[in-house]
Amino acid sequence: MFDKFKSMGAMAALMKNKDALREAGDRVRAKMDATRVVGEAGSGAARATVTGTLKVVSVELSPALVMGMASDDKTHQLAGSLIAEAVNNALTLAQQRLHEAIGHEAKAMGLEGMIPDLGALGGLMGAGGAGGAD
Fold first, then answer.
1. Which helix or strand (DSSP H or E) is residue 41 part of?
2. pLDDT digit string, tens, across residues 8-27
C-alpha cells in the first residue's frame, strides 16, 4: 500500500520536472535507435533484423531456400511464411527490448511498478518467440 503512495509521490515530483521526463524519453529513443535484434525461422533459413524502433533493417534468406523458390511454387510459399515468421519474431524481440529500456528508466526515476507488464499483453496477443539479439 505504501509503495503506491511512494509511486504517486514520485509521479507528482516528475510532473514538476518535465525536463527529466523528456531526457528519459530521449535516452530510451536513442537506445532503441541503436538496438538491433535478429529474428529467425526455419532454423535460420530466414532471418530478419529489426531496430528497437520496430523498423525492418534487413531480411536474409539461405541460399538453399532461394534456389528452391526459383524451382518450386511450394517452396516459394514456404519462403514467404518463413520471412513473415522471422520478421514477427524480430518485432517481438524489439518490443521486449523497448519494454526493458522503459522499465530501466522508470526504475531510475523512482517509478518502478508504474509501468504495466507488457509481457502479459503480448501473451494475450499471441506474441512470443525466441531468436538472437545484438
1. strand 36-41
2. 666 676 677 778 878 888 99
